[in-house]
Request: fold
Amino acid sequence: MKIIIAPNAFKDCLSSPEVANAIEAGIKKVLPSAKTEKIPVADGGDGLIDVLLEPLNGKIINTFVTGPRYKKTNSEFFYSQNTHIAVIEMAKASGLALLKNSERDVTQTTTFGTGELIAEALNLGAKHIYVGIGGSATNDGGMGLASALGKHK
Reply:
């Protein structure tokens, strides 16, 4: 028997690869001889980078950006020097997970930090940039992002 394990992340709990590992462990307890194949997936929100790290053969770039409530925050994105591909999770710079429940007010949030991540990827030489827009705490239509790129040199 072969079982394909293709989970998304469990929000605020486990990444997609962690969920796949947990499911596989459960299957192996019940069906020790079963062959399993883990294919973690992401919907474009939290966990997108985790899913792409291995197949795209790149690394995580850490940087500070403007968070969703205009405070500097530590963030990251994926970059492959070999392919010049960058993958950015909007959630890492402009996401709900960066805010307390009491701070979640789309009239007070920005995508500026996501634009800063894109600018940093461009500075590294990215030729192809993919942005996963799930998990956002914003509703500015990308105006913050565009504003940050307008300042990019």
